[in-house]
């Protein structure tokens, strides 16, 4: 329990310090921008404003498979996306419904999709 309380106190103090440091850094940047405006240094003024407006963009380092495992190798990304879109195109729920009603699915099946062929449409019987 003491370790947990010490950890919380240290974490709080650290976060407080980081917030103050960030606030000081932002204020320093604002002062530099104001000085550039006052000195009519427009190029530097607009560059610094543009830099301030940028937002953080994280780098994607992996994607999750259906089973929850994270794939980090770029060579395997393609396979994960192929499986994902196959799941969207050939939804198992619709296949189960068509089997229950005895209807044959029209359009494309999975094998012909991989070959790039389209299944001929079947005439309806009345």
UniProtKB/TrEMBL annotation:
Name of the molecule in the record: Uncharacterized protein
Organism expressing this protein natively: Popillia japonica
Region (Disordered): 91-126
Ranges of biased composition (kind: Acidic residues): 92-112
Biased composition (Basic and acidic residues): 113-126
């Amino acid at each position: 329990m003491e370790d947990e309380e010490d950890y919380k106190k240290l974490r709080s103090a650290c976060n407080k310090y980081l917030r103050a440091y960030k606030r000081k850094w932002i204020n320093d940047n604002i002062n530099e921008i104001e000085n550039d405006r006052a000195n009519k240094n427009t190029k530097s003024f607009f560059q610094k404003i543009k830099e301030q407006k940028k937002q953080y963009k994280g780098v994607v380092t992996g994607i999750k498979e259906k089973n929850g495992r994270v794939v980090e190798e770029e060579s395997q990304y393609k396979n994960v996306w192929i499986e994902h879109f196959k799941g969207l195109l050939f939804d198992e729920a619709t296949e189960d419904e068509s089997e229950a009603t005895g209807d044959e699915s029209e359009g494309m099946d999975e094998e012909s999709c991989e070959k790039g062929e389209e299944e001929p449409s079947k005439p309806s019987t009345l």
